[in-house]
C-alpha cells in the first residue's frame, strides 16, 4: 500500500509538470491534467498488483488492430517504452531488445516483444509501422499507441519516467522490463547498451515455466 501511494504521488507530480497532449480520438484525453491524474490514480487503485494483463485499456498496434495487454498472455513479454522521433536513446533501446531476441535463439519465437510509445500525438499506427520497418522488427514485435491515461498508467507501473519538452520530444528513463506469462513484472534492467546476460537467462527460465 505504501508503494502504491508513492507511485501515485510520483505520477501526479509528473502529469502536472509534463505533457499538454491533445489526443483527438478519445474523450479521455480532452480532460485537464488534474482530471487525467485522477483517472490514472483510479486505475492504479483498481489495478491488480499481480498482473499488468488485467489492465482493461485498449491500445492500437502498428497494424491498426485494437488489443488489450491480455493479448500477450501465455508468453513472457519484453517491454520497452519509447517514442519514434527520438534521435538516439529509443533506437538504441530497441536495438538492445533486438540483441536480447537474437541471443534467445530457439526461444525467440516463444517471447513477445512490445514497444509502447510516449508520443500519443505523433506515434500513430502508420508512424509506428514505419519505425518497425526502419528498425527491421519481425512479426514477434508489437508497437502500441494509447491515450495519455493508458500510457501514463503503464509508465508508473513499470517505473519508467518521462516528460515532454517544449519541442514536443521527451526526456525519459531507459528501462527494459520482462513480464512473465501471466503479465507479472518479473525483471528489469535500466540503461543503454547494458549487459543483458541476466535478462536473457531470466527470459529463458520464464519460457520453461
Strand order of the largest sheet: 2-1-5-4-3-8-9
CATH C-level class is Alpha Beta
| Tally of distinct domains | 1
User: Biggest sheet, in brief?
Assistant: 7 strands, mixed
CATH topology: Glutaredoxin
- Secondary structure class reads alpha+beta
**Shape-level CATH architecture:** 3-Layer(aba) Sandwich
Beta-strand proportion: 15-25%
**Which outline best applies?**
globular
Helix content: 25-40%
Q: Whole-Å distance between the termini?
A: 29 Å
Number of helices: 6
Number of strands: 9
User: Stretches where pLDDT falls below 50 for ≥5 residues?
Assistant: 1-33
pLDDT averaged over residues:
83
CATH homologous superfamily placement: Glutaredoxin
Describe the structure.
The chain is of the alpha+beta class and 209 residues long. It has a single domain (2-208), classed as Glutaredoxin. Helices cover 37% and strands 19% of the residues. It is built from 6 helices and 9 strands. It has helices at residues 2-17, 33-46, 89-104, 125-134, 148-157, 197-208, and strands spanning 59-61, 66-67, 77-82, 112-117, 141-145, 162-164, 170-172, 175-179, 185-190. The strands form 2 sheets. It has a 7-stranded mixed sheet, with helices on both faces. A two-stranded antiparallel ribbon has the order 6-7. The longest helix has 16 residues, at 2-17. The radius of gyration is 16 Å and the shape is globular. The two termini are 29 Å apart. 36% of the residues are buried.
Amino acid at each position: 500500500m505504501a508503494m502504491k501511494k508513492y507511485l501515485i504521488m510520483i505520477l501526479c507530480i509528473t502529469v502536472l509538470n509534463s505533457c499538454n497532449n491533445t489526443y483527438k480520438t478519445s474523450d479521455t484525453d480532452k480532460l485537464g491534467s488534474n482530471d487525467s491524474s485522477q483517472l490514472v490514480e483510479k486505475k492504479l487503485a483498481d489495478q491488480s498488483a499481480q498482473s499488468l494483463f488485467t489492465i482493461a485499456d485498449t491500445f492500437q498496434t502498428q497494424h491498426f488492430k485494437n488489443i488489450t495487454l491480455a493479448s500477450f498472455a501465455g508468453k513472457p513479454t519484453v517491454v520497452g517504452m519509447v517514442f519514434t522521433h527520438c534521435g538516439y536513446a529509443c533506437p538504441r533501446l530497441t536495438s538492445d531488445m533486438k540483441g536480447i531476441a537474437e541471443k534467445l535463439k530457439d526461444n525467440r519465437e516463444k517471447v513477445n516483444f512490445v514497444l509502447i510509445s510516449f508520443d500519443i500525438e505523433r506515434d500513430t499506427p502508420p508512424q509506428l509501422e514505419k519505425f518497425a520497418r526502419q528498425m527491421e522488427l519481425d512479426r514477434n514485435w508489437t508497437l502500441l499507441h494509447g491515450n495519455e491515461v493508458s500510457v501514463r498508467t503503464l509508465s508508473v507501473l513499470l517505473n519508467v519516467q518521462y516528460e515532454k519538452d517544449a519541442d514536443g520530444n521527451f526526456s525519459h528513463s531507459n528501462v527494459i522490463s520482462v513480464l512473465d506469462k501471466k503479465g507479472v513484472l518479473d525483471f528489469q534492467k535500466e540503461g543503454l547498451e547494458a549487459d543483458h546476460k541476466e535478462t536473457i537467462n531470466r527470459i529463458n527460465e520464464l519460457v520453461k515455466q
